[in-house]
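Z., the sequence and structure:
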Amino acid sequence: MLEQSLSDKAREIHEGYLNCEQYILAIPRFSKDKHSLHDLRRFLKRLDDPHQGRKIIHVAGTNGKGSVCAYLHAIFTASGISTGLFTSPHLETMRERIKVNGRIAGEAEFVAAFAAVKEKTDDFHPTFFEFIFLIAMVIFAQEKVECLILETGLGGRLDATNAIEEKNLAVITPVGYDHMELLGTTLAEIAGEKAGIMRPGVPLVTACQSAEVACVLQRKADEYDSPFAAINNRAIKINEITLKTIDFSYQYRYDIIVRAKMPAKARYQVENAALAIHSALAFQDERISAVTVAAGLAGAVWPGRMEELGPGIIFDGAHNEEGILAFMEGAEGIPCRGKKYLLFAGVREKQSRRILDILSEKKIFAEIIACPLQNRRSLTAAELLTFKLDATFAGVESGLAYLIKEKKADDLLFLTGSLYLYSEAKRLL
């Protein structure tokens, strides 16, 4: 009888969570306008300022934000620091965007936080992203976490996460061309938007950047009198790359060298990990050491980035030019005794043609095929026929079936493009 009662309760919670998801997914139909940061700060006050009293690390950039956040979260958790993580987008469930000490938010706590936010929406309704961000803040307060790691959704200066004014550390990953219709057409303009997360006197740690971007960030740090540190990739030493792990070292200072082995396949993840290492040590908490950093990275996994979905089948969500270049370098560096095949599926964006040109220029794949996604923004089969590809298929299912039939035991099959491909491919596999 008790088991039946528990089962009914679990079903009730799950149904409640699905109702919350459906409500949030419907928000764009009636609440499209992004609000000012002042509006969001007032709404946070209605929720009793759930972020107050917590240490904040804010992460912006074009590529690698999610990975850097995941690595920081793993390091802080391994160091015994109670930590909340907010990222986007999600791959399978909305709850993935909210993590506490390494676990995703539970359905019951998501439902309770949803109710707390919705109760305050009489004269102000948050947008899709704002609503989930506010839910995350409520959950973090309920869990009484000590530190928050926040990933910007888009840009930085006007992003909902930037409603948090007091921060302890700003981190900026590599800045490149993305969302140019909103952030600007030059790297300097885009960098200026990303630099909007900075605050006077708050340290900034940044990845190795182009000269144009570095100049903008340095100028802003000088204006704010903020300590500024830029990662030098020469401080990274790759010891060994296997199909499952990368063993590397990072020299933080002349007297501090961190050696770690993490479950990753691509070199670009080492550069993301190095940025996380430098940021964690720059945070200056005595609980964080070279030992806890290595322990955290040993178990750190970020789904959708060179993730093995099946034996010899690897997914990487590279969806802009810089991401594709990093993906190509990573795919080329992964040991393989046989051939490498590629399936691409992307959305209709300005960079799609350039991405497909890059993929076909470098002959590391024995065959490149493409297919449309089950998404209204997807490139269609007719549009894909205009690119230089070995074949185009009607959908992901038929494309995957073809390549899996072609693939031998020693071959590798790569899937890349839009993150929408992840859920389709994972379901099929």
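The radius of gyration is 22 Å. The first strand starts at residue 55 and ends at 60.

Let me know what you think.
H.
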